[in-house]
């Protein structure tokens, strides 16, 4: 599984320049035949310029623990499950931040979750060590990197078992959406796809992938679609045709690029697509369905929290995943909001032994609700901090309304900006008719003139995770 999140290569990084482990150490449970398959995949004549070598580091005890994981129900709201109280108690014994709070009398092992202060991304960027338990051996740390949508990159310590559990969840979500995802040695099991100037790319084997005893471990790869990542453009087409990934895990920009290539003849036929990190529009979801007849799983989470919720259709609901993840929705003052009221998504999670989190502010916004079966869901999930626009009457309008307006117009992607004078400009990816409809809809919504920049390619919105909304107005 990938351990980077839309991050380019550091300036001083030398590809393959520090290879400290052998393949046998990277995949301790795999036979020599599987290791040879990884080596052959690295050496494929049409392969991209691989930038990294990595493995899942899973040991026999990890595989046994993953196989015996007890089921957990998703939880949200003011009444957290028992494991949350146990995490609060353990954190005050083992996590420096909470040990200090206990010494100072600010909180203690029996403090209710709702009375604990929230944790921000800045807290982790400036003081990560204060959130790592003192009693966890650090000899197996994997480093994940999260670029976020604003601010400094965050390096997240990950346990090999945690990363493998994400793969198992991914498999469960894909099969739960109706796709068949068996181990198939003739195809690449999973491709994690990016589309940017520079990125970590590598081949790996998925030791924990569900499969019959004795079957080879499926391979996965992290691949950059950017033409500069390949020796020749023809190599990119040949590599995809010969590997034909079963599942594509990506975000909106590379997904649209892959759809464009496939519609132009690139031979790929994924059984499912998993979108993460960015919003997926109904127009893109329709393209996936029409071209591949494949389900699209919209997976919401952060590198620091892991997966939180997922949607397998185009509705308003993201169902919380069945893991040790508890979700609250808070107002700007940090007060819990009732079901149906939008606020910031705040996550308590005990999945990664190196980074248990109590009340972590995601910067994303949604309302809590329940589905038809009574299970907790996030409604109208809006990634990153919500932006508000000032209409002609002086009223502030939330960006979630803009999402509904622009999606209805049929755009593939967009960026909507309001400058300090109140003028509005829409940068749109889609056909001219959809863009014109979007301009009319925004003009009617805000009562203001709307300038239009029609873009021919989603990549023109920027690399990584382009923000969909911005404003130069400082609205209260």
TrEMBL record:
InterPro entries with a match to the protein in the record: AMP-dep_synth/lig_dom, ANL_N_sf, CapK_Type1_Caps_Biosynth
Limits of the AMP-dependent synthetase/ligase domain: 240-347
Pfam family, one: AMP-binding
Entry-linked Gene3D superfamilies: N-terminal domain of ligase-like (3.40.50.12780)
Protein name per the record: AMP-binding protein
């Amino acid at each position: 599984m990938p351990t980077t999140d839309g991050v380019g290569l550091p300036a001083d990084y030398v590809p393959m320049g520090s290879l400290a482990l052998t393949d046998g150490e990277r995949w301790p449970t795999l036979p020599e035949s599987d290791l040879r398959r990884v080596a052959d995949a690295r050496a494929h004549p049409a392969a991209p310029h691989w930038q990294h070598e990595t493995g899942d580091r899973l040991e026999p005890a990890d595989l046994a623990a993953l196989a015996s994981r007890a089921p957990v129900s998703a939880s949200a709201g003011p009444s957290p499950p028992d494991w949350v109280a146990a995490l609060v108690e353990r954190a005050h014994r083992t996590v420096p931040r909470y040990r200090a709070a206990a010494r100072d009398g600010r909180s203690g092992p029996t403090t209710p979750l709702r009375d604990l202060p929230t944790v921000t991304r800045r807290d982790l960027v400036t003081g990560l060590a204060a959130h790592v338990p003192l009693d966890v051996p650090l000899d197996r740390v994997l480093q994940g990197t999260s670029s976020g949508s604003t601010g400094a990159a965050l390096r997240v310590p990950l346990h090999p078992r945690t990363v493998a559990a994400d793969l198992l969840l991914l498999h469960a979500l894909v099969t739960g959406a109706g796709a068949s995802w068996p181990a198939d040695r003739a195809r690449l099991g999973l491709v994690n796809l990016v589309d940017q100037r520079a990125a970590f790319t590598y081949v790996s084997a998925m030791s924990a992938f569900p499969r019959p005893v004795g079957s080879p471990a499926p391979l996965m790869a992290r691949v950059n679609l950017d033409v500069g990542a390949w020796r020749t453009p023809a190599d990119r087409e040949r590599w995809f045709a010969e590997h034909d990934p079963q599942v594509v895990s990506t975000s909106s920009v590379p997904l649209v690029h892959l759809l464009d290539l496939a519609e132009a003849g690139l031979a790929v036929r994924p059984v499912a697509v998993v979108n993460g990190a960015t919003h997926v529009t109904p127009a893109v979801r329709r393209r996936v369905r029409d071209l591949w007849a494949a389900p699209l799983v919209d997976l919401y989470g952060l590198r620091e929290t892991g997966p939180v919720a997922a949607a397998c259709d185009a509705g308003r609901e993201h169902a919380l995943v069945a893991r040790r993840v508890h979700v609250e929705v808070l107002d700007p003052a940090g007060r819990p909001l009732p079901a149906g009221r939008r606020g910031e998504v705040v996550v308590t999670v005990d999945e990664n032994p190196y980074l248990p989190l109590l009340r972590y502010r995601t910067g994303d916004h949604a309302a809590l609700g329940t589905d038809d079966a009574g299970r907790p869901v996030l409604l109208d999930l809006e990634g990153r901090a919500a932006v508000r626009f000032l209409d002609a009457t002086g009223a502030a309008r939330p960006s979630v309304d803009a999402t509904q307006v622009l999606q209805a117009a049929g755009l593939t992607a967009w960026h909507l900006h309001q400058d300090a004078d109140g003028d509005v400009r829409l940068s749109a990816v889609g056909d001219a008719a959809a863009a014109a409809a979007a301009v009319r809809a925004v003009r009617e919504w805000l009562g203001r003139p709307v300038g239009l920049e029609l873009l021919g390619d989603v990549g023109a919105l920027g690399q990584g995770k382009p923000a969909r909304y911005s404003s130069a107005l400082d609205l209260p």
